[in-house]
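Chain A, query sequence.
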Amino acid sequence: MSLSPFPKALLTRAENLLALYRDQGLMLATAESCTGGLVAGLLTEIAGSSDVVERGFVTYSNAAKQECLGVPEAVITGFGAVSQKTARAMAEGALLHSKADVAVAVTGIAGPGGGSAAKPVGLVHFGCARKGRPTVTRVKRFGAISRDAIRFAAIGVALDLLFEAVA
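Chain A, predicted structure.
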């Protein structure tokens, strides 16, 4: 009996992603804020993931984003922690501060509080950086669904970006 907190569909996608990266000899890193390490947790739920998952950064605070990933203070103060620019800087910073070939970043407002008219609960920005390629960003507005639903939906988008990075 599995005690995994992750739905079987996500576990299957994670297994497929790890196999794809393994076949291509690629390592990945995660840089997570609103998901609090759930993307890395999902990937490392799979036995043998250590040959693909290089490391994960949980950078919940602005200071951690700056100290661990090198996100410029000017980006956070100018655009906010939940922004396309911050997601891009997080993904690129994860590449620079690891030995990974691909890095995915997630930053958003999972709620139930903390949102505003400009940045409502359910707003999540993503970045995906791969060595030698332009960084890709994506934004999703999941709406004021539950905190868990926002975080798990964000995991799915992060997996999508990691798959696209090797397509």
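The beta strands are 28-32, 53-58, 102-108, 123-130, 136-141. The helical segments are 8-24, 38-44, 62-69, 73-79, 84-96, 147-164.
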